[in-house]
């Protein structure tokens, strides 16, 4: 079966953008703890009439002045843009899961417990006491919710998304 312009097909994931209060600390955390690759060092983008300046004004509206950004890549080639905006604000509640929008991202590591400990050692925290098993006593599929040192919510899965959910994780 061929895809026509009217047929949907599963798009691949290109990248995510994460806001942090300290770009250097975030680059250090994500490269040293999660092992992501730095592919573009921290750079300052300024509100001006350059191509990137105009594109950012289209996105943010006028008056954003400047921000810093670094680009990383995961082991499966998904890009991660890390932003540090001036006047960055940490919300009182960084886990407003009931509001529309993205409330977490998930990484995969077969040793959920070790990565969770490494995140805590680097200044992050656990949002659950211990990993949860999807099929206790039957399959080793585990997960845990965490926070990075900047309050961004991340989850760790032990196995692929497809393995966990194609087995009927909620049955």
Written account of the structure:
The chain starts with 14 loop residues before the first strand and ends in a 5-residue tail after the last helix. It has two domains: 13-87, 2,3-Dihydroxybiphenyl 1,2-Dioxygenase, domain 1; 102-171, 2,3-Dihydroxybiphenyl 1,2-Dioxygenase, domain 1 (Roll), CATH 3.10.180.10. The longest helix has 10 residues, at 23-32. It contains four helices and nine strands. The strands form two sheets. Strands 5, 6, 7, 8 and 9 form a five-stranded mixed beta sheet that branches. With 171 residues, the chain is α+β, with helices and mostly antiparallel strands. The mean pLDDT is 92.
Keywords:
single chain, 171 residues, alpha+beta, 2,3-Dihydroxybiphenyl 1,2-Dioxygenase, domain 1, 5-stranded mixed β-sheet, 9 strands, 21% helix, globular
SSE diagram, text form:
Blueprint: E1 15-19, H1 23-32, E2 37-46, H2 51-60, E3 66-73, E4 79-85, E5 105-108, H3 112-121, E6 125-126, E7 132-133, E8 142-147, E9 153-157, H4 161-166
In short:
With 171 residues, this protein is of the alpha+beta class. It is 21% helix and 29% strand.
């Amino acid at each position: 079966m061929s895809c026509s312009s009217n047929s949907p097909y599963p798009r691949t994931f290109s990248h995510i953008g994460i806001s942090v209060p300290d770009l250097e600390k975030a680059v250090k955390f994500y490269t040293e703890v999660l092992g992501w690759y730095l592919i573009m060092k921290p750079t300052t983008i300024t509100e001006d009439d350059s191509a990137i300046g105009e594109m950012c004004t289209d996105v943010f509206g006028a008056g954003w002045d400047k921000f810093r950004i670094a680009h990383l890549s995961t082991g499966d080639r998904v890009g991660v843009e890390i932003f540090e905006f001036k006047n960055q604000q940490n919300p009182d509640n960084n886990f407003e899961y009931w509001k529309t929008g993205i409330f977490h991202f998930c990484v995969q590591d077969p040793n959920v417990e070790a990565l969770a400990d490494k995140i805590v050692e680097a200044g992050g925290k656990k949002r659950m006491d211990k990993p949860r098993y999807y099929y206790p006593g039957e399959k080793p599929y585990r997960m845990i919710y965490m926070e990075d040192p900047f309050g961004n919510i991340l989850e760790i899965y032990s196995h692929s998304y497809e393995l966990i959910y194609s087995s009927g994780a909620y049955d």
